[in-house]
Fold this sequence. Notes:
Blueprint: E1 4-6, H1 8-18, H2 21-26, H3 31-43, E2 45-47, H4 64-72
Amino acid sequence: MKFRLISNSLFLEYEAVKSRREILERCILTELEIRKLTKAFYSVCQWIQIYYLWRPNLIDENDNFLIELAIAGNSRQ
């Protein structure tokens, strides 16, 4: 089974986005269905602890945590 990498930072971002009013208004799923879907997604995620912060200074500075996740999770993709 192929796992998806996730960290606390990415989890918090997913949780914030899925509760945005503009997302909920445009989505055909109910809030309960969205919760079930994300719960199913999280169940196939491999949670990665980030111990070292890398600051590659991406164009969007707020996305640096994704580089940290990829490095800490030894991602090859």
